[in-house]
Specification:
homodimer; Isopropylmalate Dehydrogenase; 2 domains; eleven-stranded mixed sheet; 50% helix; phospholipid metabolism (chains A, B); phosphate:acyl-[acyl carrier protein] acyltransferase activity (chains A, B); transferase (chains A, B)
Amino acid sequence: MIRISIDAMGGDHGPGVVVPALATFLERRPDSRFIVFGRQEAVHPELAKFPSLASSVEFIHCDVAVRMDDKPSQALRHGRGKSSMWRAIEAVKLGQADVCISAGNTGALMAMARFCLRTMAKIDRPAIAAIWPTTRGESIVLDVGASIGADAHQLVDFAILGGAMSRALFQIERPTIGLLNVGVEEIKGQEEVKEAGQILRYTELNSLVYQGFVEGDDIGKGTVDVVVTEGFSGNIALKTAEGTAKQIAGYLRAAMSQSLMSKIGYFFARGAFNALREKMDVRKSNGGVFLGLNGIVVKSHGGTDHEGFAAAIDLGYDMVRNRLIDRIEADLQLFHAHRHQLSALGRARADEEGEGEA
Amino acid sequence: MIRISIDAMGGDHGPGVVVPALATFLERRPDSRFIVFGRQEAVHPELAKFPSLASSVEFIHCDVAVRMDDKPSQALRHGRGKSSMWRAIEAVKLGQADVCISAGNTGALMAMARFCLRTMAKIDRPAIAAIWPTTRGESIVLDVGASIGADAHQLVDFAILGGAMSRALFQIERPTIGLLNVGVEEIKGQEEVKEAGQILRYTELNSLVYQGFVEGDDIGKGTVDVVVTEGFSGNIALKTAEGTAKQIAGYLRAAMSQSLMSKIGYFFARGAFNALREKMDVRKSNGGVFLGLNGIVVKSHGGTDHEGFAAAIDLGYDMVRNRLIDRIEADLQLFHAHRHQLSALGRARADEEGEGEA
């Protein structure tokens, strides 16, 4: 049985989307139990609409709901210990739940998760991992916005975190890892990216395959299973891709309604268009995963509907079932056991002087 | 009459694409003259195929051709003074041409352009500007890869350069400027981006309207006319968008050929699909513009065909005709005349302490 704590007050629609999502999810995974945190007057009416939830949901009233526009520091000040967001995270810390899901604001959720769960030993900073649909399937991209900038060791941590997530979620035994970089020779890359590449190359971890640098267009191609970057460029890449997808969908809609002929064409091809819509459905890959904390927190998109929120729960469920945290801990241990190899890095680096990265 | 210098040896296809592009372009703009640099044995056979070019092209043989995989330092070492790339750039410096177009490798072209033309007075570093198709039209995004990282003053320079290009190319009197950033409150932004925002806000230039921070998905929406960022995230945004567009085009092709019905639909809607293809045609927005140098250099995509290369020439032509360099110089002068206002920044900043950016 997997136990899931839910912040019912997050997102643009709150319990009106979250509660129906629980019902949708429970049909798929009847072996789940929920602890739902929120304001009673908002959540009870929604719960009443889904009698099927009664035996699987424990509801806990919280006076405070973190607002979508609260700054992280405000949220912590007003919501620590008593908001639905805090309590949902805390349920993971207290061992009452295996994973926490919230559609609340990202900054507040990360601040609270960090404060409450703390980062794992040997991890400097947590990251937010996104699942990116590619032409080959799905890849993981991290960090997409937990923090700005990262040094080489933090990038290596992200590689380990993302690699463990890839194995837990997609059952890829040795996921391939790429460091996001720009392709122009010689101005190629920030020093920290280059150094991270060297560390990954020389430690030769059994849990992952370091493939070298990748560029922005490699993400959608699925060139590697895990794309590692710091939060600024990761966030920009993610939002740029979302924006481009919306832009093209708009072009397509406009093109299909431009003439009678195109409308007839649309009518015949509507099955294909539905398949395409399915393929481009951002709800299916909804959910940013907070990695590097002592517990799993999944951030659902704030504007999503109940299908999207249910997809975020799916994600949390799968990661718990596949023991994500254990895998990360094992990989970290492995990495630090290989540390003596790292000490060889200085020598190796001198040997390789002038040799470029892939 | 506008005089254009051409590096015929650049790109994946060299003169086989470049020369036909000249013919295509000349039909549109018969008032142009070309100086074409390249290896005689490669260029002459191509020129022979287009007798219409004879009266408009001066050909100059160069022994050396910079290769697509040459590192900038190699290219400079072997090609300075004698390669087709160098000579084409130098023609601008010597006043023999108004603009230089090359499909050669970006790093080498930038290194040579910088070395030969030098950066403008009061500009620290050049930038590469891309034209980005948006749902509202076209925006300019810079820097997309001239260099990694930028301090606040360099970002402000980029805003001025991009603003001038927007006015020269799109006749927008006061283009709106946005600084690319991430949206999470409080971890929001790198210090240099914040500081650039403050400088732009307090100088209140007549030549542009500073609109605040924008995010990755704002680029495709056309939220602002000019998106300013440093080369690492700019390059990643550009390539990620290109990758996403290709990915979706692939999905669409697959969907349309999946069944008889969808093929029939495609047949009826083929006019609409052609319009869509036209809309998504990357060749039309082909050309990265090197800004901040004492002369205009346009970098065409290396893999483009003759239509794409002709579009890059269009771009160079328009910028010359609309006196881009004069505009940049005027804007820079204006900015530095406003410098006394900048000195008020320290005080203004103290007043505004704690107040967020848009």
